[in-house]
Amino acid sequence: MPICIECRYPVPQLYHVLHSSGGAGSRKPPPINRSTKPTQPNVSVKNTAPPRSEPKPSTAALGGDVRLTQCPRCKRFADKYVEHDNVVLFIDLVLVKPQVYRHLLFNRLGREDDELDPSITRLGVLLLLFDVYLTWSRIETLPSHLTSSSPIPHLPILLQYAFYVLLCATATAAQHLSIRWVAAVLGFGARSHKEVGEHGQEDFEVPARSTPNGISTALFVSSCMKLFPILMVVWKYLDAGGTVARGVEWAVVVQNLEALRILLECGYLGAAALVGTGWVSRWAAAWLILGFVGLQQCI
What is the reported pTM? Predict the structure, then answer.
């Protein structure tokens, strides 16, 4: 069931369609001419006038206007992002607004069968490929004495690409699996609880929403900041000491923390423990693989 993105109150639907009485479905067909008078024979006449374009159906003819549902608890729109485009969603994700995370995790991408939404799968592949590009470019720009003992820079391009895909995929899997495991052990989001109202009374029950793929969805959605360095493909700039890359990583950490806090309702301390566990696991997996090929100084 969808929820209100402002107060988390369950609502039956996010919007409803108001059908117009003057739409195309209410028009009556023209009466049939049943006259017995003889008709003139059909004569084909060549039409020299330019063809007229058919009028486009109006919004009312297509099904009516859309009205957002008002939350019965807070009296605000249950989900205002229903009528917003993806650009607005991306901007609010960058601004770390809790409402946009509730819209994406609960009302748009959340599934009861615990399956990843196809759009999340595509986003995960995009993040992985872009992570490969950033990691590869960062290691290639390092001084030669840090990479001289490794055979990776001397391999063919396809083998190098396969190595970096394996490196980034293993690090991402370690991050997701460790966060899933810690959340399951600590029981974050696994039990329903009562939401306390303003006057101390039990207002409504918040159902359990912790699922393994739900956690991965939250991590992928909150990692969209990794796409910002795509500007490196268009404009070359000198990232001295990796300042820009580290700034992006810290921004992703903040977004991961907020997304897990909203999804699991575990507070900032619990979310920080999960995010810290995930990034330590990611770093350890990358360190083991790079150390195996002689690139441990490039971590």
Answer: 0.76
